[in-house]
Amino acid sequence: MNTDLAKALVDTLPLGTDRFYNPWTDSCVHDSEQNGPEARLIRLAQHLACKAKLILVGEAPGFQGCRYSGVAFTSEKLLMKGLIPRVDNGGARLTDRERPFSEPSATIVWEKLHDLGLAENTLLWNAVQLHPFKPGEPWSNRTPTRSELAHGRGAIHLLKEEFPEARWVAIGRKAESQLAALGIVGVATVRHPARGGATEFAKGLAEIAKASTTTNRALLRPGTMGC
After folding, report:
1. What phi and psi, each to the nearest 5 degrees, are found at residue 38?
2. What span, in angstroms and rounded, lies between the C-alpha atoms of 174 and 121?
3. pLDDT given at position 5
């Protein structure tokens, strides 16, 4: 586990408010007995324990995913099925609802990462790492404002320092603008899989994987700069 990094990332974030929920410091009435801020922090630390080649950045945590899992684009159902590399949840429930949460975008993202052989060396993050919800409706999602995105910049700076060789991929325009504002260069942008974007997302990620493979092979040829 990369516990020190997980704690450092969380320390950059404010506590939850009536418009934001911090998955790693706040508790929810719908958490199962096995789930809570500490369990979510452990999962985040496990997720961070890799030599990241790609860092995929979405917009913000959703109520069906990271709010309860502690890992971006990761749902209760995916964890119970053991489909998230490095994260061992033992099949335990995260919520007290009758059926486990299954987040559509999370399912699409991990399915494609596994298909392309990228899952083991990819980190998932968000432009702002707090779950934005409508006041009085914790089981809802809303788009973070431009000023609210500022809450996420400190953590992204830390990830950039920790994984200097990783390539950044923005999932959607909010993530793209956030990374541009932070001066992170070489960013690829793919369509967000939500709202009918699954096919374009899969196509974009496949093109990134292909380009990365081509580049790595070129660097290994005799007489190139990689030799």
Report:
1. -65, -45
2. 24
3. 97
193-204 burial, b at 16+ Cβ within 10 Å, e below that, comes to: bbeebbeebbeb
Rounded CA gap, 58 and 211, in Å? 21
Distance CA 163, CA 52 (A): 7
pLDDT attached to residue 213: 63
pLDDT digits (tens, 9 = 90+) for 124-157: 999 999 999 998 899 999 999 988 999 999 999 9
Structure tokens at 10: 């969380």
Buried b (16+ CB within 10 A) or exposed e, 86-102: bbebeeebbbeeeebbe
Helix (H/G/I), strand (E/B), else coil: 110? helix
